[in-house]
Amino acid sequence: MKEKRWHLLPQPSTQKEIEIIASLCQELGITEDLAILLWQRGVENFEQAKLFFRPSLENLHDPFLMKDMEVALERLEKALATNEQIVIYGDYDVDGTTAVALVYGFLSQYHSKILHYNPDRYKEGYGISKTGIDWAKEKDTTLIIALDCGIKSIETIEYAKTKGIDFIICDHHEPGEELPAAVAVLDPKRKDCSYPFKELTGNGVGFKLLTAFCLKREIPLEDLYNFLDLAMVSIASDIVPIIGENRILAHYGLKKMNTNPRTGLKALKEVSGFQGDMSIENVVFTIGPRINAAGRIKHATAAVKLLLSDDYKEAVDFAHEIQAHNTERRTHDSRITEEALAMIQKDEWLLNEAKSTVLFREDWHKGVIGIVASRCIEHHYRPTVIFTKTKDGYAAGSARSVSGFNLYEAIESCSHLLEQYGGHMHAAGMTIPIGQIDSFRLAFDEVVRQNISNELLTPQIDVDIEIKLETISPKFYRIMQQMGPFGPKNMRPVFKTKGLSLASDPRVLKEKHLKLEVLEKETGITFTALGFGMKEEFHDRLVKANTFEMVYSIEENTFRGQSNLQLFIKDVKF
Question: How far apart are CA 411 and CA 424, in angstroms?
Fold first, then answer.
């Protein structure tokens, strides 16, 4: 594994900042360490702290601030008034499937002529497909609401117009220079959209459309808030910043997930074997991959049916089907990752000279190439694109970035070689003629080489503050937990502690994990620390070390009714 860089986040240094910390300590009755954590998250006074610790749905923005919202609502109301056939069309990933379940599930209470559709990942690919439009036309559809896709579907939306089908687009991806000729294009990333929050998911944009619908019809917003567990799953799984509106939606969505989740999510959680309350991290690693697996292995419609089901027995059957897809997905994922890493090892240029990784094999499973790109980055930390053959001489590619590097802009620079592409800073997808892959590999690497620093090619761990182990107490942890939900731009706090040693020999768990009793020499305090997958890297060095320093997060472990705080190791330096 590549050695990691520890980056200490900004600390209060000016007189004004020091006074803010002192004021927070006094007004909130908290320690300086907790005040610094709050200040790093933009909290500088009592009122801001109140808003931060008590997220309120009343602080969501007015949906009519979004460009085209009025015209979108007008077209939707016309469709309902004249009893038009409507299709809710969504992408095949978690964001797209939860968005379809949310918008279809809510609007079907007010309109009977409504259908839902998710494209086949392998036969139709990403975005609005002609196949989907033809299917909608067969059903006499005159309005399609597209969720988590459509912002780049210029040709297919023109095609839909020839079929007499209008579109309302609810997307959150970066638009191109030209917008599709839809009746309304709802996307906060539009250059001409002044909506205050730019980081909504596709599901979130659909949620704003429904909010406007409720306000116009004077429907109690509480009816819509019953769907917030779906909004939360999309926020967690799409790895968007959990700040602003996303943090409010995620907070209330988690609350619903942990008290009264919809039938499908309850069944999925049970079938996965997860017990207890879920955090955003739990949703990312437990719920998200299973919903995604439906579209990766077979068809995303199975996930939508699960999320829409009101019958628990039926939902459990759907959940078992999706669980089987997830098991198959993991098998493909492991095999292809091994093959990809072996290809890198055999290629001298890729291994030692390239600033990016671009790999292609005809037989790789298209449904897992995005996951494989992420796995490759864990071993070879650089922007990565994984291609596999589709049909008609084309290859589909899935790309992932390293922290701080704009992947979308790099791919856009190579767009002359691509058939189509889309995505954002951290992840993207594309289609390319197979004969152009070698040219793309060289062009992409050159763009990365010109725009990435050596610093960005070294994995970075952001450290919030340096503390002593004596700082950690149940009260400290309880207040820290209220800073959640944690996720991008509001990560679970990471701490650094120096002057540690082992209180006893390290234990090895399942041949690859470490369980340590760490002792802070200065205070004599010990804590249990867990290092997942760290046996090979750190066991022998820890045994030989006199002292070491560690970066870690804090978690609560409950076993047989007893709870205690544990440290989850991020990295160790000697």
Answer: 10
